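NAD(P)-binding protein
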Amino acid sequence: MTPDATILVTGAGGGLGSAIAAHVSCHLPRSIYHAIYTVRDTSRPHEALRAALLSPHGSQSQHEVLSLDLARLSSVRALAASVNRRVASGEIPPIRALVLNAGLLEFEKQTWAADADGGFDMTFASNYLGHWLLTLLLLQSMDRDCGRIVVIGSSAHDPAIPMIARHYPYEVLKTFIHGSADPLAKGTWSSNKEDPTYHSGFRRYGAAKMCLAMMVGELQQRLAADPALSRITTIGVDPGTMSTGIVRHSNWFVRVVVHGVIIATLARLIAIIWSSPNGALRTPEKSASDVMDAALAARWQKGGFYLDGSELSDMSEEAKDPDKRALVWQDSSRYADLKQGDTMLVNWN
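Structure:
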Protein backbone atom coordinates (compact mmCIF):
# COMPACT_ATOMS: atom_id res chain seq x y z
CA MET A 1 0.00 0.00 0.00
CA THR A 2 1.31 3.47 -0.88
CA PRO A 3 1.89 5.62 2.24
CA ASP A 4 -0.03 8.88 2.51
CA ALA A 5 2.35 10.83 4.78
CA THR A 6 6.06 11.43 5.22
CA ILE A 7 7.98 11.78 8.47
CA LEU A 8 11.38 13.49 8.22
CA VAL A 9 13.80 13.30 11.15
CA THR A 10 17.19 15.04 11.31
CA GLY A 11 20.08 13.63 13.32
CA ALA A 12 18.75 10.10 13.06
CA GLY A 13 22.14 8.55 13.74
CA GLY A 14 22.17 9.75 17.36
CA GLY A 15 20.64 8.15 20.43
CA LEU A 16 17.33 9.98 20.35
CA GLY A 17 17.19 9.95 16.54
CA SER A 18 17.63 6.19 16.32
CA ALA A 19 15.08 5.73 19.13
CA ILE A 20 12.61 7.80 17.10
CA ALA A 21 13.32 5.57 14.08
CA ALA A 22 12.67 2.49 16.21
CA HIS A 23 9.43 3.99 17.50
CA VAL A 24 8.24 4.79 13.97
CA SER A 25 9.15 1.28 12.80
CA CYS A 26 7.55 -0.53 15.71
CA HIS A 27 4.55 1.58 16.68
CA LEU A 28 3.28 3.46 13.62
CA PRO A 29 1.32 1.90 10.73
CA ARG A 30 3.76 1.09 7.92
CA SER A 31 0.97 1.49 5.38
CA ILE A 32 0.60 5.18 6.27
CA TYR A 33 4.08 6.60 6.80
CA HIS A 34 7.17 6.92 4.65
CA ALA A 35 10.16 7.88 6.82
CA ILE A 36 13.18 9.94 5.82
CA TYR A 37 16.07 9.84 8.28
CA THR A 38 18.97 12.25 7.78
CA VAL A 39 22.52 11.80 9.04
CA ARG A 40 25.56 13.96 8.44
CA ASP A 41 27.58 11.21 6.77
CA THR A 42 25.82 8.23 5.20
CA SER A 43 29.15 6.39 4.75
CA ARG A 44 29.43 5.85 8.52
CA PRO A 45 27.83 2.69 9.93
CA HIS A 46 25.33 4.35 12.32
CA GLU A 47 24.83 1.03 14.06
CA ALA A 48 22.00 2.15 16.35
CA LEU A 49 19.97 3.47 13.43
CA ARG A 50 20.67 0.36 11.39
CA ALA A 51 19.54 -1.82 14.28
CA ALA A 52 16.32 0.21 14.60
CA LEU A 53 15.54 -0.14 10.90
CA LEU A 54 16.55 -3.79 10.55
CA SER A 55 14.65 -5.06 13.57
CA PRO A 56 11.90 -7.62 12.93
CA HIS A 57 9.35 -4.82 13.27
CA GLY A 58 11.25 -2.29 11.17
CA SER A 59 12.35 -4.53 8.32
CA GLN A 60 9.11 -3.96 6.42
CA SER A 61 8.79 -0.25 7.14
CA GLN A 62 9.16 2.25 4.30
CA HIS A 63 12.19 4.39 4.98
CA GLU A 64 15.36 5.88 3.56
CA VAL A 65 18.53 7.39 5.03
CA LEU A 66 19.81 10.58 3.41
CA SER A 67 22.85 12.78 3.96
CA LEU A 68 22.39 16.24 5.51
CA ASP A 69 25.10 18.48 6.98
CA LEU A 70 23.19 21.20 8.80
CA ALA A 71 26.32 23.36 9.13
CA ARG A 72 26.56 23.57 5.32
CA LEU A 73 23.70 25.67 4.02
CA SER A 74 24.36 24.31 0.52
CA SER A 75 23.67 20.80 1.88
CA VAL A 76 20.45 22.04 3.50
CA ARG A 77 19.31 23.61 0.23
CA ALA A 78 20.18 20.49 -1.77
CA LEU A 79 18.22 18.15 0.50
CA ALA A 80 15.22 20.49 0.62
CA ALA A 81 15.21 20.86 -3.18
CA SER A 82 15.27 17.09 -3.62
CA VAL A 83 12.45 16.48 -1.13
CA ASN A 84 10.37 19.30 -2.63
CA ARG A 85 10.75 17.85 -6.11
CA ARG A 86 9.74 14.38 -4.96
CA VAL A 87 6.68 15.61 -3.07
CA ALA A 88 5.60 17.80 -5.99
CA SER A 89 5.89 14.87 -8.41
CA GLY A 90 3.97 12.51 -6.13
CA GLU A 91 6.96 10.21 -5.61
CA ILE A 92 6.61 10.62 -1.85
CA PRO A 93 3.64 12.00 0.12
CA PRO A 94 3.57 15.41 1.85
CA ILE A 95 5.42 15.79 5.14
CA ARG A 96 3.16 15.10 8.11
CA ALA A 97 5.91 15.61 10.70
CA LEU A 98 9.25 17.41 10.39
CA VAL A 99 11.32 16.58 13.49
CA LEU A 100 14.28 18.92 14.05
CA ASN A 101 16.31 16.58 16.24
CA ALA A 102 19.99 16.86 15.22
CA GLY A 103 22.23 18.42 17.86
CA LEU A 104 25.86 19.29 18.54
CA LEU A 105 27.51 20.14 21.87
CA GLU A 106 31.23 20.96 21.57
CA PHE A 107 32.10 21.34 25.29
CA GLU A 108 35.81 22.20 25.56
CA LYS A 109 36.45 23.08 21.92
CA GLN A 110 34.97 25.45 19.38
CA THR A 111 34.85 25.12 15.61
CA TRP A 112 33.33 27.09 12.75
CA ALA A 113 31.63 26.24 9.49
CA ALA A 114 33.64 26.86 6.32
CA ASP A 115 33.73 30.42 5.00
CA ALA A 116 31.67 29.28 2.01
CA ASP A 117 28.89 28.46 4.47
CA GLY A 118 29.13 31.76 6.32
CA GLY A 119 31.85 30.88 8.81
CA PHE A 120 29.22 30.52 11.53
CA ASP A 121 29.91 29.00 14.92
CA MET A 122 29.39 25.26 14.47
CA THR A 123 27.08 24.96 17.47
CA PHE A 124 24.85 27.77 16.20
CA ALA A 125 24.80 26.47 12.62
CA SER A 126 24.23 22.79 13.44
CA ASN A 127 21.62 23.20 16.15
CA TYR A 128 19.72 26.23 14.94
CA LEU A 129 20.47 27.96 11.63
CA GLY A 130 20.49 24.83 9.45
CA HIS A 131 17.20 23.72 10.98
CA TRP A 132 15.67 27.18 10.52
CA LEU A 133 16.55 27.23 6.83
CA LEU A 134 15.48 23.60 6.27
CA THR A 135 12.07 24.34 7.76
CA LEU A 136 11.47 27.46 5.67
CA LEU A 137 12.48 25.63 2.48
CA LEU A 138 10.32 22.57 3.20
CA LEU A 139 7.10 24.42 4.03
CA GLN A 140 5.88 23.89 0.48
CA SER A 141 6.07 20.13 1.03
CA MET A 142 4.27 20.06 4.38
CA ASP A 143 0.80 18.57 4.69
CA ARG A 144 -1.43 21.67 4.47
CA ASP A 145 -4.14 20.19 6.70
CA CYS A 146 -2.19 18.74 9.63
CA GLY A 147 1.56 19.17 9.06
CA ARG A 148 3.59 19.70 12.20
CA ILE A 149 7.12 20.93 12.88
CA VAL A 150 8.61 19.50 16.07
CA VAL A 151 11.56 21.38 17.54
CA ILE A 152 13.71 19.41 20.00
CA GLY A 153 14.53 21.77 22.83
CA SER A 154 16.67 21.59 25.94
CA SER A 155 16.61 22.94 29.49
CA ALA A 156 20.07 24.34 28.66
CA HIS A 157 18.31 27.29 27.01
CA ASP A 158 17.06 28.64 30.36
CA PRO A 159 19.66 29.95 32.88
CA ALA A 160 16.85 30.46 35.43
CA ILE A 161 16.60 26.69 35.98
CA PRO A 162 18.60 25.89 39.16
CA MET A 163 20.48 22.92 37.68
CA ILE A 164 21.44 25.01 34.65
CA ALA A 165 22.39 28.21 36.49
CA ARG A 166 25.86 26.95 37.46
CA HIS A 167 26.93 27.22 33.83
CA TYR A 168 26.04 30.94 33.88
CA PRO A 169 28.04 32.42 36.79
CA TYR A 170 27.76 36.06 35.67
CA GLU A 171 24.59 38.04 35.15
CA VAL A 172 25.65 39.21 31.68
CA LEU A 173 25.77 35.57 30.51
CA LYS A 174 22.16 34.96 31.51
CA THR A 175 20.90 37.05 28.60
CA PHE A 176 21.78 35.75 25.13
CA ILE A 177 20.60 38.50 22.80
CA HIS A 178 22.03 42.00 23.15
CA GLY A 179 20.77 43.95 20.12
CA SER A 180 21.74 41.30 17.55
CA ALA A 181 22.26 37.56 17.18
CA ASP A 182 25.63 38.18 15.48
CA PRO A 183 27.78 37.29 18.55
CA LEU A 184 25.98 33.92 18.77
CA ALA A 185 26.20 33.30 15.03
CA LYS A 186 29.89 34.14 14.81
CA GLY A 187 30.83 32.45 18.08
CA THR A 188 32.21 35.50 19.87
CA TRP A 189 29.68 35.16 22.69
CA SER A 190 30.95 32.76 25.39
CA SER A 191 33.85 31.77 23.16
CA ASN A 192 36.25 28.98 23.98
CA LYS A 193 39.05 31.55 23.85
CA GLU A 194 37.48 33.52 26.70
CA ASP A 195 36.59 30.41 28.71
CA PRO A 196 38.35 27.17 27.72
CA THR A 197 36.27 25.07 30.13
CA TYR A 198 33.29 22.94 29.12
CA HIS A 199 30.96 25.65 30.48
CA SER A 200 31.51 27.87 27.42
CA GLY A 201 30.50 25.09 25.03
CA PHE A 202 27.44 24.33 27.14
CA ARG A 203 26.43 28.00 27.07
CA ARG A 204 26.76 28.21 23.28
CA TYR A 205 24.59 25.09 23.03
CA GLY A 206 22.05 26.69 25.36
CA ALA A 207 22.00 29.85 23.26
CA ALA A 208 21.38 27.88 20.07
CA LYS A 209 18.57 25.96 21.78
CA MET A 210 17.10 29.28 22.94
CA CYS A 211 16.99 30.41 19.30
CA LEU A 212 15.14 27.19 18.47
CA ALA A 213 12.67 27.87 21.30
CA MET A 214 12.12 31.35 19.84
CA MET A 215 11.45 29.73 16.49
CA VAL A 216 8.54 27.75 17.95
CA GLY A 217 6.58 30.87 18.83
CA GLU A 218 7.70 33.09 15.96
CA LEU A 219 7.08 30.53 13.23
CA GLN A 220 3.73 29.58 14.77
CA GLN A 221 2.64 33.22 14.68
CA ARG A 222 3.68 33.63 11.04
CA LEU A 223 2.08 30.36 9.95
CA ALA A 224 -1.20 31.20 11.67
CA ALA A 225 -1.43 34.41 9.63
CA ASP A 226 -0.52 32.74 6.32
CA PRO A 227 -3.48 32.11 3.98
CA ALA A 228 -2.09 28.83 2.61
CA LEU A 229 -0.14 27.47 5.59
CA SER A 230 -2.31 28.37 8.59
CA ARG A 231 -3.07 24.74 9.50
CA ILE A 232 0.61 23.81 9.78
CA THR A 233 1.76 24.07 13.39
CA THR A 234 4.95 24.06 15.46
CA ILE A 235 5.67 22.57 18.86
CA GLY A 236 8.78 22.38 21.05
CA VAL A 237 9.75 19.33 23.11
CA ASP A 238 12.41 19.15 25.81
CA PRO A 239 13.35 15.43 25.87
CA GLY A 240 15.11 15.64 29.25
CA THR A 241 18.58 14.35 30.09
CA MET A 242 19.41 11.09 28.33
CA SER A 243 22.51 8.98 27.77
CA THR A 244 23.18 9.73 24.08
CA GLY A 245 25.97 10.71 21.73
CA ILE A 246 25.38 14.42 22.38
CA VAL A 247 28.30 14.16 24.85
CA ARG A 248 30.71 12.59 22.36
CA HIS A 249 32.97 15.68 22.47
CA SER A 250 33.18 15.73 26.29
CA ASN A 251 35.99 14.33 28.43
CA TRP A 252 36.23 10.63 29.25
CA PHE A 253 34.69 10.94 32.71
CA VAL A 254 31.58 12.78 31.52
CA ARG A 255 31.21 10.64 28.42
CA VAL A 256 31.79 7.18 29.91
CA VAL A 257 31.11 7.41 33.64
CA VAL A 258 28.49 10.15 34.05
CA HIS A 259 26.43 9.55 30.90
CA GLY A 260 27.42 6.04 29.86
CA VAL A 261 26.98 4.48 33.30
CA ILE A 262 25.30 6.70 35.92
CA ILE A 263 22.66 8.49 33.84
CA ALA A 264 21.96 5.47 31.62
CA THR A 265 21.53 3.16 34.64
CA LEU A 266 19.39 5.55 36.67
CA ALA A 267 17.15 6.33 33.69
CA ARG A 268 16.56 2.59 33.09
CA LEU A 269 15.79 1.99 36.75
CA ILE A 270 13.37 4.91 36.85
CA ALA A 271 11.63 3.56 33.73
CA ILE A 272 11.22 0.15 35.39
CA ILE A 273 9.96 1.51 38.72
CA TRP A 274 7.74 4.22 37.23
CA SER A 275 5.87 3.19 34.10
CA SER A 276 5.51 6.75 32.77
CA PRO A 277 8.52 8.72 34.03
CA ASN A 278 8.76 12.40 33.20
CA GLY A 279 11.58 13.37 35.52
CA ALA A 280 14.92 14.98 34.66
CA LEU A 281 16.48 11.64 33.61
CA ARG A 282 14.82 9.71 30.78
CA THR A 283 15.58 6.89 28.41
CA PRO A 284 15.82 7.67 24.68
CA GLU A 285 12.85 5.34 24.15
CA LYS A 286 10.63 7.36 26.52
CA SER A 287 11.67 10.64 24.90
CA ALA A 288 11.17 9.23 21.40
CA SER A 289 7.61 8.30 22.35
CA ASP A 290 7.03 11.84 23.66
CA VAL A 291 8.44 13.38 20.48
CA MET A 292 6.22 11.33 18.19
CA ASP A 293 3.20 12.06 20.36
CA ALA A 294 3.97 15.76 19.94
CA ALA A 295 4.35 15.20 16.20
CA LEU A 296 1.13 13.29 15.59
CA ALA A 297 -1.35 13.57 18.47
CA ALA A 298 -4.44 15.68 17.80
CA ARG A 299 -4.27 17.29 21.25
CA TRP A 300 -1.26 19.38 20.19
CA GLN A 301 -2.63 20.45 16.80
CA LYS A 302 -3.25 24.04 17.93
CA GLY A 303 0.53 24.54 17.96
CA GLY A 304 2.85 26.96 19.69
CA PHE A 305 3.24 24.73 22.77
CA TYR A 306 6.49 23.94 24.53
CA LEU A 307 6.52 20.55 26.26
CA ASP A 308 8.72 18.98 28.88
CA GLY A 309 8.50 15.38 27.73
CA SER A 310 4.81 14.51 27.76
CA GLU A 311 3.74 17.47 29.89
CA LEU A 312 2.90 21.05 28.98
CA SER A 313 5.74 23.32 30.06
CA ASP A 314 7.17 26.74 29.32
CA MET A 315 10.26 28.22 27.72
CA SER A 316 12.52 30.93 29.13
CA GLU A 317 11.36 34.52 29.45
CA GLU A 318 13.89 35.65 26.84
CA ALA A 319 12.67 33.03 24.36
CA LYS A 320 9.15 34.45 24.72
CA ASP A 321 10.20 38.06 24.14
CA PRO A 322 8.35 39.07 20.91
CA ASP A 323 10.85 41.79 19.96
CA LYS A 324 13.86 39.49 20.38
CA ARG A 325 12.07 36.69 18.54
CA ALA A 326 11.49 38.96 15.56
CA LEU A 327 15.10 40.20 15.69
CA VAL A 328 16.55 36.66 15.67
CA TRP A 329 14.20 35.75 12.80
CA GLN A 330 15.38 38.72 10.72
CA ASP A 331 19.02 37.95 11.47
CA SER A 332 18.46 34.30 10.50
CA SER A 333 17.01 35.37 7.17
CA ARG A 334 20.13 37.44 6.58
CA TYR A 335 22.52 34.66 7.60
CA ALA A 336 20.78 32.13 5.35
CA ASP A 337 20.52 34.62 2.48
CA LEU A 338 16.85 33.77 2.14
CA LYS A 339 15.22 35.43 -0.85
CA GLN A 340 11.76 35.92 -2.28
CA GLY A 341 10.61 32.64 -3.78
CA ASP A 342 12.79 30.43 -1.57
CA THR A 343 9.90 29.68 0.80
CA MET A 344 6.11 29.51 0.58
CA LEU A 345 5.74 31.52 3.79
CA VAL A 346 4.24 34.91 2.86
CA ASN A 347 5.71 36.79 5.83
CA TRP A 348 9.19 35.29 5.56
CA ASN A 349 11.43 38.31 6.19
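The two ends are 40 Å apart (CA to CA).
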